[in-house]
Protein 1
Amino acid sequence: MPQYPPPPYGLPSPPPAVSGLAPLRVADSFADLALAERTVVPFGRAPDGLPWLLEVNRSDRMAQLRHAVVAAFELDRWERLPEGVRQAVDTQVAAGLLGIHELSAQPAGAPRKRVYVSRRPVRELLGATVLTEALFSTSEAATRPTGSALPITAVAAAVAAAGADEVADRLERAIQARRASRHLVLHLAEQSCSTATVLAEDAVLRRPQEPVRAALFETLRALPGCTLQVTSGDGQTTRVGVDDGEGYGWALLRGGGLYDKKVAAAVTRAAVLGLLSGLGQAAGALHRQGIVHGDLTPANCLLEASGIVPFDSLALATGDIATAATFEWAAPEQIISRPVSPQTDVFALGRMLARLLGAVPFGELATYVVPTGGGSLSQVPVVKTAGVFIDVTGTGRSRSWQRAWQGLLLDCLAFDPESRPADGQTFADRVADVAAAHPIDGAIEINPAVGRLVAIEPTRGMGVGRLLVD
């Protein structure tokens, strides 16, 4: 059984007010995923500290499989099949069709590992990242798409015009990667959680591609001063520090119900600015190795205990032409198939900073038509930035504050890469300098995690988890 920190996973002695709340039984082992038609397993921690719970319900599919086998042999009921056939269908056949696979193990020659591969991709299961939530207002978050529907993996395939075989090969790999998705991989014997890519052609059977990476889960504890707000149906709000797991658990269970509770996390804009600065430093470490990330977006950054971590890098060398881009955040040279550089990542960092500050770049608007694979085209608007405006009306912020941040953003969002800060570390240093002289204020309310709040049966007392349905 995976080991979790102290409360709120288990609260020592629930009060009488919640004694009638029916808790959900959680499986003791990932092994249940191999055979059980319906089970719930814990596999990690949500950003607010509650355990992620994965519900897997295969009863309908198993019934359909059994019905098909019975019909194939022209029998009238399942029980008339030989016991060995029934057992094989319920184990080997069902496992291969319902997400159970074997992975090669290291070192070579070691026993293969049996795993369960989630039906839904990781982005769809876990929802938007903390940084994505922080950079989009609550009202926008309520109307925009979530999970895999977010505009996070558009492919800019204009490099096909280059004509070189090596570039064309990279283009084809990029198109294939766009059609793939990452899924959870739960190791049945080891009780560990990883992620792996599933290609589009393997989506039905969910065959994972190696290498398999350790799963990374976000935590709000990395945000200084972050508080969790629990609001009941009667409008009563309880606020607790993100480190107060037991207080958070009591706030959720108070009143005997979970379904009327709304949870939000409050974080200062200054703390989010710290994330962007940390992201610049992380990008700078890549730049010192001659690597350009190439896809710095809020959706490609995870908030771990050690800080903000970018992932899904295109791992481009300075001077390469990118085969992929997320248009909303990509630099102009990446969209129009020009060589990339560390300044390409700086542009993406500038876009995120502009989003945090509510800044509006303005200038000449150009529209580029780029192929995106599969015979499709996209029209991508690009602003040749002539200036950046931050509205300070009624905020109490000074003109010097306005000019300082506008000036930094104008440099970061310059159409010409050479006019931008040299690399991620330079971006972080300039952000620190401006913030020291002109601090940013205000707070942001974000959704701390997806999933339905449920009462669960831990080893002692009663706890709360976030239930995701696969």
Protein 2
Amino acid sequence: MIQCVGSRENDHPYPYCSRVCCAEAIKNALRIKELSPQTAVYVLYRDIRTYGVKESYYTKARQQGVVFVRYEEDSKPEVSRNGAGLQVVVRNQTLGMPMMIPANLVVLSAGIHPHEDNKTIAQFLKVPLNSEGFFLEAHMKLRPVDFMTDGVFVCGLAHSPKTIEESILQAQAASARAAAILVRDTLELEANVSEVVDQSCDGCAYCVDTCPFKAITLLDYMWQRSVKKSVEANETTCKGCGCCQATCPKNGIFIRGFTLDQIRAQIEAALEVA
């Protein structure tokens, strides 16, 4: 078994650890030894990462005769045909010399990659992706299965590489969060959302493109016998991030509870205390 195939490489688009490979390889090695104790099992690895309670599996595998051979990133194992079978050549770090292993079967532990459609789905649902291409939750500790977009939740490998047990637990959390919404007759909206001041807004639309939640639309309406442009904020989708207020050059939109006068008063009060 050869670990870290297609992952943890600087020149590879997915340099992270896939987490489950080492544990699954050792689990399979133990199963092979259980069915056929005389079978020689080799695990070629860069770093064994059987995190959590699975560390005991690594110790048990060594006790049952599974051979672990470490290789460096710049000296990867080479697989070639050898008659009817295969042979693997790897540089043994302990012996400091190449080691040839005849093999009936070579198993590659391939890295877990994000789905190629993730970017399209993220744009459709207006949810973020992390640098590796997996979906990013609203908050790692406080909202681990929520997105900033209401009513959309994340679990399993869509979130990051993880074991079946972790995927099941996260799926249970996501379904519980969804059920908590479905059982309600009504939903309360956020209090601190954007509000438009029609007298000041001239419809420049700077805030429309700036809003990350697409909660602001440009409107045309009649005002004193002439067409006036203004914007409208959708309170159901607004999250009160303040991007619109920071962009507006005419003080035509603000976040309730955070007008410029209120913010100025907070600053002055803080300076007086200091």
Protein 3
Amino acid sequence: MVSSNALAQKKKQPVNRILFIFDASQSMLGRWQSGRKIDIAKKLLSNMIDSLKNIENLELGLRVYGHKSGYPPQDCDDTYLEVDFLQASSAVDLIKKKLSVIRSRGTTPIARSLEEGAKDFPDDNGRNIVILITDGKEECGMDPCAVSRLYQKKGIILKPFVIGVGLEESWKASFDCVGRFFDASREQDFSNILNIVISHVVDNTTVQVNLLDANRNPTETNVNITFYNEFTGLAKYNYIHTMNTYGYPDTMVIDPVLTYKVVAHTIPKVSIDNVTINPGKHTIIPLETPRGKLEIKMKSKINYKYIVRPNGVDTTLNIQQINEIEEYLIGQYDIELLTLPRKKFYNVEISPNKSTVYSIPTPGLASIILPSKGYGGLYQHNGEELEQIYHFRGKKTNYRLTLLPGDYKIIFRAIAAKEYIYTQEKSFKIRSGKSEMIKIY
């Protein structure tokens, strides 16, 4: 049973809003199969929106350009919101009535219409869709692509749909950057495209992300999944992947208007680009995420951390704490434990559905007493070489250092000693869980 708190956390579904931006410029008087473009487009749009009348949670608006000022002269401000947003049940008849009296007269301010159209939407949380119906190209010197990008990145509108009505072939490519372009070369195409576009808005569309294990079965879960808007790069959805009560990856409702980059935040992360969602259908997105577990065990009062890197690559993938278990994609890794001295493991193999465990002995405590302030440090043998792991900087005479078990050497010279021959050395051993006092005379 789902708790009331869990239900309260579910996001309220935003209002779906469609703004039709309709081209009534002079070029729409041109012939197109059975009649003039303007008449055919008005008729087909009017017929289609009838099917939207009884859809709940849907608001419609209509902006028209090129219909109030004759050409010439050119009026680049000839774009008007003719029907403000209303519930579909009320808006449909008003839009049809307005379309019936529109006449083609003027120029084609596409960018200005997109800009003003973005401002038409209310400020509250809504799913704002623009459907631009046009037969021409920008004639007012603005950049429709730049305007579309701006308002998408601001999150005011989703990627617009552009329906080209009998467009010249050379103009079609210019709309790809404005939004998702559909070429209606024939009347029947226009009707089919309108239905496809509307299905993106109103049809229930579901997605299932399959996180595949080493056997390509969707058993991996409890991973954060982010859907990024491929166009703007902004995160659209963040969900924690889970299994439903039947043991299958849970179903998510994802907006089919956008194209996505889907990222599984495993360590390291896995992603897939250019994911399109089929409206009204169930889409399965597979991601290869076979994982195994890693743990470093140590009995210590200090909560040490360690760096996990890809094998042979000086890049930090994760900072993990001792005695904690973390999952990683299968493969090889390098580990650097931030103890004194640092402990390193190379070519650590993470295997599918298994735990890789390293046990580190308990550190010991070294109490170092120097005869005076001075310089030098603490060293450990690294093969035949001495490696300095701690510096004496002439600030104090007592040091308490927690060290891994092993053999060490102190090399020291007092500040007052002005000749190298007064350098002193002393070797000592640290045993697991034991304390040692080391005095330099």
